[in-house]
Automatic annotation (TrEMBL):
This protein's name: FAD-binding PCMH-type domain-containing protein
GO molecular function: FAD binding; oxidoreductase activity
Organism: Lactuca saligna
Residue span, FAD-binding PCMH-type domain: 94-268
Cofactor: FAD
SUPFAM superfamilies: FAD-binding/transporter-associated domain-like
Keywords from the named record: FAD, Flavoprotein, Glycoprotein, Signal
Domain of life: Eukaryota
Pfam (any one): BBE
Family stated for the protein in its record: Belongs to the oxygen-dependent FAD-linked oxidoreductase family.
Amino acid sequence: MILKPTKLINMKKSEIISSCVFLVVLCLSFSNSWANLSSLVDVTPGTENFISCIQPKSNNVTSFSQQLIFTPVNASFIPIWQVAVQNTRFLKPSTPKPSIIVTPVDETLVQKALFCAKKHGYEMRIRSGGHDYEGLSYTADVPFVMLDFTNMRSVDVDVANRTAWVQPGAVLGELYYSISQKTDTLYFPAGVCPTVGVGGYMGGGGYGNLLRKYGTAADNVVDVRFMDVNGNILDRKSMGKDLFWAIRGGGASSFGIVLAWKLRLVPVPEKVTVFVLNKTLEQGATKIFHKYQYVAPTIDRNLHIRTQVFAEYIGNTTKKTIRIMFEGIYQGTRDTLLPLLDQKFPELGVRREICEEIRSIQSTVVFWGLPSSTPIEILTNRSAIAKLNNKSKSDYVRTPIPIRGLRKIWRKLMQNDGSALLMINPFGGRMADYSESAIPYPHRAGVLLQILKTVNFNGQTSDTTPTSLKRIMWLRSLDELLTPYVSKNPREAYSNYNDLDLGVGSSNYEEASLWGERYWKRDNFRKLIRIKAKVDPDNFFRRPQSIPVF
């Protein structure tokens, strides 16, 4: 069944012009600094056939299409490719780049790009915000068309029905800002990084500061506009329950192309309370964190306390310590929060003077590391948000790590050169209410903590310098050290934090299970494979660690 485009999906002429101006500005901004790279990109033979295939016959429309389709011969090709590369370790000449970039403004051009890529033998990569941890949405070792949704970024908030239709090119910051312009008593339970693209984020599950109260982002998807491998545009009803299940947490880009998500907005108070508190080893951080593992996943669902753990030197000495940053957000006032913490977690030592009551939109700014007084418009300014330059891995903790285990981890962190960070989020609450198979995202009841482990490449010219390689080896050794303390059979990992170290084999189930069961667990992974075989039997939508077809 093919659905007719809606008012949301078909952008107005003024929006199209604005999007084109956006691309032109990018080209002017980056063409000089990247001119030396453009000469290193080869023009893949056959791109002329693709261009001829995708362009309409009308001269006027052809002229317009040329502003939306780019090949390596265009001066703007490199700037457009690189602007949404959110992990700068991939910004290097050796990174394989697309044969063609298509930046559609409507569903018609998406359909044509799909048809022409299939006809002329290209693979396709789909980029929403560019936060793919392994760069898989914008790089490949084969000729490919990159579908870049930067021009399809509308957000239509319906306060009365508590929903929002969001196109795939919108980023979380734009979604939050759009909601805040209409109400302070609704929000969406997603992450705190403003430049994460909505299109890919929901496909992996998605979590944030509201996960203990409202579950994952994908749990709050109520409908979708979706293009299958044949170019049919489907919604929740017409695609059937299996495909709708699969794309919410199973990697939507393995099955087709998300054109828009319909999201359920959730109620929040007009003001929430945030606090930030640091503890070092000398201040009892080890015992406090040990208790945190018991308290944070079981305390009132309105409270979420994230931690960041890193090593640092003590003053001007050569001695190191561990600093743990406790970042809390409470869906209520400080007058309710403080008695709760005094009862459940007095060791943390949260005081009234460090608690701040602010709007939900401001809390996103705070959790991104900026003062609450920062204008919220920064969430819509993609160029103002710092990019990553790192390699990451993820784990889930189901049994509290004992004191002796924490001390081993601290010693390992102090052996690092200062490039490492652990970011830890508590689960429990609403997350435990869902079964592992409610959607493909399986990390539910019993999970206490999710750990993101990362090393950056700051100060290095690439991720292949001796220092960078040493940092990667350190991260892998940390991964090994954590083995006794994290989930087992399988050792769970978060698919949105994709990690090619887990494996990329997909010629049979035994190979694919090495990574697939870690992301989705066995039953969900097998179900995803069955659905994939039905909706994309020739495996057109493929990339490393996509759902395979055997």
